[in-house]
Amino acid sequence: xxxxxxxxxxxxxxxxxxxxxxxxxxxxxxxxxxxxxxxxxxxxxxxxxxxxxxxxxxxxxxxxxxxxxxxxxxxxxxxxxxxxxxxxxxxxxxxxxxxxxxxxxxxxxxxxxxxxxxxxxxxxxxxxxxxxxxxxxxxxxxxxxxxxxxxxxxxxxxxxxxxxxxxxxxxxxxxxxxxxxxxxxxxxxxxxxxxxxxxxxxxxxxxxxxxxxxxxxxxxxxxxxxxxxxxxxxxxxxxxxxxxxxxxx
Length: 249
Hints:
Order of helices and strands: EHEHEHEHEHEEEEHE
Distance between the termini: 54 Å
Enzyme class: transferase
EC number: 2.1.1.152
Keywords: Cobalamin biosynthesis, Methyltransferase, S-adenosyl-L-methionine, Transferase
Number of helices: 6
InterPro entries: 4pyrrol_Mease, 4pyrrol_Methylase_sf, 4pyrrole_Mease_sub1, 4pyrrole_Mease_sub2, CobF
Pathway: Cofactor biosynthesis; adenosylcobalamin biosynthesis
Shape: globular
Oligomer: single chain
């Protein structure tokens, strides 16, 4: 039986790490870090900064491995994601079996909240199917959705209205929008909306020193968001952004 922690570490600011997460960080012997390439080295460095802040004495191992690459051009999006998850499951199974010794605890440091738009729990189900016995603990974290609302000082829900969270590729077919949080929108789907009553609260690199925030009527600020988004993506080589679309009352 292998002991494994999934630790939510917030949207990027080390100060968003909870007391429970700090306790979990201090109990782990080995941390697994997926390297997504030079362009996204910031993501690795932020994890290392969190470890240096909360485990300054060291006493742990850091296992850094290359993350399998997902086929971003595949016509079958879900099929490509399932293939990617299977590749990750093979890698995770090897890491867990080889790197977590008797009496040790391993850990993944996960952005935001481990149960919201993160694939690790699904991948670990595949790891179990490969015969790896796991004793798992999930530590919740502050999600980018929460950080976005806090930065813009807006409540996520309005009285008597639902809140929908969806990926960017599903926005166009969603229908009428009242309160919708959009994540994983690599194509800036908001730019295709022409409803004059929509407000947008947009944020990128939330919780980091590169944080960018823009808010206003969608039709008035969409061009600015597109310009800033592309500028920042080119500057850093990657971008993580989230936004809330809301119909004005």
